[in-house]
Amino acid sequence: MSVPATVSAASAQARWPRLRRPDPVALMALPAFAYLAASYGWPLIALLGHSLSGPDGISLAPFAQFLSDPYSWRVIGNTVRSALFVTLVCLLAGYPAAIALARARGAVQALLLLSVILPLSVGVVVKAYAWQIVLRRDGVVSQSLVGLGIWDAPQRLLFTETGLVIGAAKIFLPFMILPIYSVIRLIDPRLSEAAATLGASPARRFLTVTLPLTLPGIVSGIAFVFSLAVSMYVVPSLVIGDRYQTLATLTGRAFLFMRDERLGSTTAVILLAFAVAVVVGSTALARRLGGGGRS
C-alpha cells in the first residue's frame, strides 16, 4: 500500500523542520550588536588572550603569580568590600525612594523622577570633585554631623573608605531606584488592600505582599549597582587616592604608569569575571523570581 505524498511530505517536514525566517524586527538590532562586538567584545577577547599568553604559549602563570601575592588579595578584598557597602547603602536608601516614587502622583511624581534622572546627566568626574568638597573637614557632611551631636569636632571623610562609600552610593543610587520603581509600578495595589481586609498589619503586608513581589527589581538593582561599584575607577582615584587600591585602579595603574600590560590584563580579566558572574547570576535569579511571581 503506497503512502500518500502529502503524508510523506508531512513526515519529512517533521523530521527536518524548516528553518524559521528571521524576524525583520530582530534584524534591526544587528548594527548595535556589530558595534558592540567590534568595540567591546573583540577588545575583551584580545585582553583575555594577552592575560593567558606566556613565553611557551597559553599559560595560567600570570593568574597564579597574581593570586599568590597577599597584596593582591588585599586589593580584591578592598574591591569586593567597597562594592558590597555601596550596594547596601544604595539598597537601604533606594528602596523607600522607589516606593515613594511609584506611589506619588502628578507633578510630585514628575519632580521626584526628575530628581532621580537628572544627576545621570552630570559626569562622574564632576560628581567626584564635588564630593571632595563635601567630604573634607569643613564640608557639609562633617558640619552636619557636628551640628547633630554625633561628632564632637569636625572630622575628615575625604581619603577614607567611608567617604568612598558615601560618594559612590550617591552616584550609583539611581541605578538602584529605577529597577525597583519599574517593578513596583506593575504591582496591583488591590493586593495590599486585600491583605488589609484579612487583618494583616502594615508590616505583615509589606513582608508577605510587597517585598516578595519587588524581589526581581531588588535583584536587578543590586546587580546594576554592584557591577558598577566593583569596577569604578574615577571615584576611588579622586575620593580616596592611590593608597586604597582596588582591581579597577590597579588595572589603570598597571597600564598607565607601570606599563605592565600582563598585570593590567590579568587584573582586568579577574574584574570582568566578578562583574559577569554577578550579572549572569542575578539575571537567572530575577527570571526565576519573576516566573514564580507570575505563577
TrEMBL record:
InterPro entries: MetI-like, MetI-like_sf. It holds the Pfam family BPD_transp_1. The keyword Flavoprotein does not apply. The chain crosses the membrane at residues 25-45, 83-104, 111-131, 164-184, 213-235, 263-286. Residues 76-284 form the ABC transmembrane type-1 domain. Keywords: Cell membrane, Membrane, Transmembrane, Transmembrane helix, Transport. It is a multi-pass membrane protein. Signal peptide: none annotated. It is found in: Cell membrane. CDD domains: TM_PBP2 (cd06261). PANTHER family: ABC TRANSPORTER PERMEASE PROTEIN (PTHR42929:SF5), INNER MEMBRANE ABC TRANSPORTER PERMEASE PROTEIN YDCU-RELATED-RELATED (PTHR42929). Belongs to the binding-protein-dependent transport system permease family. CysTW subfamily. This is ABC transporter permease.
